[in-house]
Amino acid sequence: MPSPTPGEASSPASSPAASPAPVAARAGRRGRWRRLSTLVQVLAAVGGCLAVYGVVRVTGPTLRRAHPQLEWRTLAAASLVWFASYTQLVQLWSSSLPWWDTVVRTTPRRLTWFEGMRVFFVSNLARYVPGAVWQFAGLAAMSAQAGASPVAASMGVVFQQLVLLSTGFVLLLSGAPHLLGAWAQTLDTLSQLVLAALLTAGLIVAGPRALPVVRRWVERIIKRPVPLPTPPPRAFALYVVRAALGWIGYGVAFWIFGRALFGRAAPHVWLAATAYLASYLLGLLAVIAPGGIVVREGALVAQLSGSMGLERAVVLAFASRLWQVGLEVCAAVLVVTVDAVRRRVRASAARR
Fold it and tell me: Which among 33, 104, 280, 344 would be 20 to 30 A from 193, CA to CA?
């Protein structure tokens, strides 16, 4: 390590004892973030459990009357596909955090792969708690505790939601002609794929140019600065493609889940994937409904009842919510448990 120059050594600003107030202030802020992080984790766990209980209570009688034939191996396959898509989107969020370095004018520590999973898995459950602020408060608190920028963490989720809404609409526009009217129903599969590729390319080109316009528009409405970055073109293109792949993974996972419940009576992959995508987009837009609950289920029933009957559509819609919330809770419990074990192992090794 190079030694400091004489000027650096004699500078009062470089002496740790010269400015105890900022050090104490930073320690106090870290303590507040740590307490808020603990509170959010507790609220997130409670919210996830309440969501599971609510879905079971509402759908339990219908599930028992329908007698779905659950195939456990197919259910495991659906869960693996869903978990892979979920993890990929979490890593997409984590990888975008450095884009905010120039916006927040700091260079915070990067989150590791596991830290990003722990922060997002746990704080994401807070969206089931009424009030949209809890998820963002949890992200900010847990990210700051890990040494990352709370502003970048929170705005990274907002940015990801914007891209997911855009890519989801593009995929829905090109892949679900049955939802768009008679003119679009003449498209064959190849035409739909070409349309999806063209619309995605247009989104990649127009996205970075549209961000400043979006920022000025939002700032004019809320009367406060909105820190949105200007991502590198190649990185943004990969971001958009990965967001689209996340949607595709979710749609395929939902189709496999339907097969696990109803076998050949389940909707085919194209209908299942596009119906799930449309319902998820409506759930994202329905900000007053925690986690889009009931809104998504209603949209699924409306789209699937014609192909599989009303009762089965109701069972599939609400059972998929129970399945998803259960996976989210299990993922959060898993990462928290692994984190606790890792901390104990490190503490034990440090005492030796």
Answer: 280
